[in-house]
Structure formats: structure tokens, C-alpha cells
């Protein structure tokens, strides 16, 4: 433990602190960072700043200091166009990997210090980051997506033998039917480095032959996948939109219910009993597709399905919020022009505007609760002693106008694990 090297700390001073727990804003706050972690935080008068150490000071006067943002469901697929379905067929897979490197950097530049890649190249990007090859947010990635035949991940308009990623070395779908195939697919995803298993337990908007309310996989199949994840200390995230799909997923022990269009009262009761469940709505993708999707080239059936679900979905998310359930913020963005990385803080605005979230709660959803959705609640998500120093300095008050978080130029500093990754005019001495 003992280090002879002279200690060096970073002190963020003078800003208003929103710590991500939902506690009241603290004016004139001090955050002391040593190595990767927060060693002290509080009102300037109450915090002892160590002397005789090498010190870097960040002046946050008049600005907001808060935890780095977390997007709890996106896809680091590096898409280039909004003709998503065609692009996946005609563009070499490798180009997606290259573009996703830049998408990851865009996320970090916009203040996102952790993202959850629910199917994409994240399993490789995180390793490249660990090697020091590229920069970006902390990534948790499933790499692959388990889907039943004729399910959300089955690209039904191409021959079935071209769908599964294990044989095609393209895409991210693992088609599996029956308990033993589900176990095998889960183990394949783990073999490739998945941090968690992603499964589609319902149909969806961007799949042509199924619908959000359709139920996919049996309870036994989902349970088998949850068990495989549990064996290695990991968890399952479900693409899950329909009511019955939510009940099956909750019964089977799925950790996060993503999209969550149609919860009923029974779903809410079941979720309350399972204290570890996180709901992860993705309003941003739906909003962009219903308002601009048609012009951007999305299939008309997808735009129509999006429009059909919107009103009910926002009411239902408001219901989950009022019921006091844990909700995390996510966009489902894929990197295309319409679903561009770096604009992900729009989800907070949509939650406030359409689902009645208080701005403070929207911030908690995009920080502390995001960490819960990633299984990192003991590690990051709040500006508290002992947590990793994932901190941003924002020019403006997101409690007055949550939109300030969408303006990259107002994100003056981004710190990830104690390292200043972005410095955009923040005074550092
Ligand atoms: Zn998704």
C-alpha cells in the first residue's frame, strides 16, 4: 500500500455540486480526487484538502459539478447511414468497427463516462481502451444478442443461414431455440467477452415480422440464460416491450427491462418485490424515428409502429416513475446521423417533458441509476467518497434547464477515473 512517490491530487473547487444521489445541490463545493477515486467531497469549509501534495486545481466557479453521464442502452455498431437495414447487408462489418471508435470518443466528449453497449463492438473497444489504443467512456458490452427464430434479432428477409453471427461473422444475432440452444448461445457470448447477456424477450419496432407486444422465448429458456449469466457473476438485460414478456423476464430473474413499453399493475407489483430490477426506457430513438424517421429513410412500418406506441409508452414510463421503481436513462442510439452518439443527453429532456420527471430525478436516472443498470452502483454513478472520479463540469444549471447537458460546448471538463479527458475552457491550474 505504501507509496514513496509524492502524492498528487486534483481539487475541483467553487462549483455547485449535484452528487447524483438526489440530494440537494451543494453550493461552493469541493471535490478532492486522488488517483482514480474521489477521496473527499462536500462544502468548501468542511473538506480538509491535504497539504504537501502535488495539487491540480480546477476552477468550477459558477458552474455545476456532477457525475459523468451514463447511457444504459445503446449500440456501438458504428452505423453510417439511417438506411439501417440495407447498410447492414452491403457495408463491410469492419467499417462499423472503425466508425464505432469515433462514436465512443464522441460520447466521452459529450460527458458520458460510462455506456452500456447492448449489442455491438463494445467488447473490442473496451479492450482497445484497456490497451491504451483509443479513448472513450467505460464500456460494458454484451457483444451479441440472443434471439429466438422469428424473433427481434432474426433478420427474416435474408436466408436464415446468413443470420447467426457464429457462422456469418457479421452482425450480432445469436439465434437459439429451446433450453439447450439458449445455454449454448449464452456461453458463446461469454466466450467472446460479454459483460452481461442480452436477450430479446419480446418483439420490437425495428423488426418487420414481429410486434412490441409479442412474447419471445419461453420462461424456461429465459431462466436458463439467467442461470448461465449467474454462474459467472454476470446478469441478463432484456429487450422487453410487451406485458407478458416483462412478466416472464421478471420471473426468470432478468436484471434490466429495457424499452419497457407496456407494464401493467402486476408488472409494477412484481418489480417492487424484486428490488434489484431496473427499467430502462429509450424514448430518444422512438422520438427521433417518429419525428424525423420517414425523411431519414427508416422503413415506413417502423415509423408507423413507433407512432403507435409513443403515447402509451410515455404514460407507462410516467407510471413506473410514480410507482417509485428504479429507472435508468438510455437512448438506443446506433451512431447513424439520426441516432448520433454525443446527443444522448436528449433522453433527460424527454423524460422531463413527456413523462413528468423532476430535473433532479432525471439526473439521478442518468447517473446513479445508470450505474445500477450496469451493475456498477458500488463503483461509479455518484460524486461520493470512495467512488471512481467520473465527474463533469457543466457551464449552466441543469436543474433549471436540463437541455444544457446536450450542448457539448457547455461540458467544460470531463474526468474519467481521475483523469481529465476533456478540457473545454475549464480553468485548470
Ligand atoms: Zn437496442
How are the secondary structure elements laid out?
Layout: E1 8-17, E2 26-34, E3 37-43, E4 54-59, E5 64-67, E6 69-74, H1 84-90, H2 93-109, E7 112-117, H3 122-130, E8 138-141, E9 145-147, H4 165-168, E10 173-175, H5 179-191, E11 197-200, H6 219-231, E12 236-240, H7 243-252, E13 256-259, H8 265-273, E14 278-280, H9 283-296, H10 300-322, H11 346-355, H12 359-365, H13 368-374, E15 391-394, E16 411-416, E17 419-423, E18 427-428
Parallel strand pairs: 1-4, 1-5, 6-7, 7-8, 9-10, 9-11, 11-12, 12-13, 13-14
Antiparallel strand pairs: 1-2, 2-3, 4-18, 5-15, 15-16, 16-17
Helix pairs in contact: 5-6, 6-7, 7-8, 9-10, 11-12
Zinc ion binds at residues 73, 75, 118, 239, 332.
Query: What is the CA-CA span between the terminal residues?
Result: 29 Å
Largest sheet: 9 strands, mixed
Broad CATH class of the largest domain: Alpha Beta
Morphology call = globular
Q: Calculate Rg over CA atoms.
A: 21 Å
Number of domains: 2
Multimeric state = single chain
SS content category: alpha/beta
- Please state the average pLDDT score: 95
**CATH superfamily of the largest domain, please?**
Metal-dependent hydrolases
- CATH architect. name of the largest domain: Alpha-Beta Barrel
Small-molecule components bound: zinc ion
- How many helices in DSSP terms? 13
The CATH topology annotation of the largest domain reads as TIM Barrel
Amino acid at each position: 500500500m505504501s507509496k514513496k512517490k509524492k502524492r498528487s491530487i486534483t481539487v475541483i473547487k467553487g462549483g455547485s455540486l449535484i452528487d447524483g444521489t438526489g440530494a440537494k445541490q451543494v453550493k461552493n463545493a469541493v471535490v478532492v480526487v486522488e488517483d482514480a477515486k474521489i477521496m473527499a467531497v462536500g462544502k468548501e469549509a468542511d473538506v480538509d484538502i491535504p497539504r504537501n501534495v502535488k495539487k491540480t486545481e480546477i476552477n468550477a466557479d459558477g458552474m455545476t459539478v456532477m457525475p459523468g453521464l451514463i447511457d444504459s442502452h445503446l449500440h456501438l455498431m458504428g452505423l453510417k447511414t439511417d438506411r439501417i437495414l440495407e447498410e447492414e447487408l452491403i457495408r463491410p462489418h469492419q467499417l462499423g468497427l472503425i466508425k464505432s471508435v469515433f462514436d465512443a470518443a464522441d460520447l466521452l466528449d459529450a460527458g458520458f463516462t460510462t455506456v452500456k453497449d447492448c449489442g455491438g463492438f463494445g467488447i473490442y473497444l473496451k479492450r482497445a481502451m484497456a490497451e491504451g489504443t483509443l479513448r472513450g467512456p467505460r464500456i460494458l458490452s454484451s457483444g451479441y444478442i440472443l434471439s429466438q427464430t422469428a424473433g427481434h434479432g432474426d433478420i427474416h428477409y435474408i436466408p436464415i443461414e446468413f443470420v447467426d453471427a457464429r457462422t456469418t461473422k457479421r452482425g450480432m444475432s445469436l439465434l437459439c431455440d429451446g433450453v439447450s440452444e439458449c445455454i449454448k448461445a449464452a456461453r458463446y457470448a461469454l466466450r467472446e467477452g460479454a459483460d452481461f447477456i442480452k436477450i430479446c424477450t419480446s418483439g420490437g419496432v425495428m423488426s418487420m415480422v414481429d410486434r412490441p407486444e409479442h412474447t419471445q422465448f419461453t420462461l424456461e429458456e429465459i431462466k436458463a440464460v439467467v442461470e448461465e449469466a449467474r454462474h459467472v457473476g454476470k446478469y441478463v438485460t432484456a429487450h422487453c416491450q410487451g406485458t407478458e414478456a416483462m412478466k416472464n423476464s421478471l420471473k426468470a430473474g432478468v436484471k434490466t427491462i429495457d424499452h419497457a413499453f407496456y407494464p401493467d399493475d402486476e408488472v409494477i407489483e412484481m418489480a417492487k418485490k424484486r428490488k434489484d430490477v431496473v427499467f430502462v426506457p429509450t424514448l430518444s430513438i422512438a422520438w427521433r424515428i417518429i419525428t424525423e424517421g420517414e425523411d431519414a429513410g427508416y422503413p415506413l412500418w417502423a415509423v408507423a409502429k413507433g407512432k403507435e406506441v409513443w403515447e402509451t409508452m410515455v404514460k407507462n414510463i410516467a407510471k413506473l416513475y410514480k410507482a417509485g421503481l428504479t429507472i435508468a436513462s438510455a437512448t438506443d442510439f446506433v451512431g447513424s446521423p439520426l441516432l448520433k452518439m454525443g446527443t444522448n443527453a436528449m433522453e433527460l429532456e424527454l423524460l422531463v417533458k413527456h413523462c413528468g420527471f423532476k430535473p433532479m430525478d432525471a439526473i439521478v436516472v442518468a447517473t446513479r441509476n445508470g450505474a445500477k443498470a450496469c451493475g456498477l452502483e458500488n463503483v461509479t454513478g455518484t460524486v461520493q467518497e470512495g467512488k471512481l472520479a467520473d465527474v463533469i463540469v457543466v457551464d449552466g444549471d441543469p436543474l433549471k434547464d436540463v437541455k444544457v447537458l446536450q450542448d457539448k460546448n457547455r461540458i467544460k471538463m470531463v474526468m474519467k477515473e481521475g483523469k481529465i479527458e476533456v478540457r473545454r475552457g475549464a480553468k485548470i491550474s
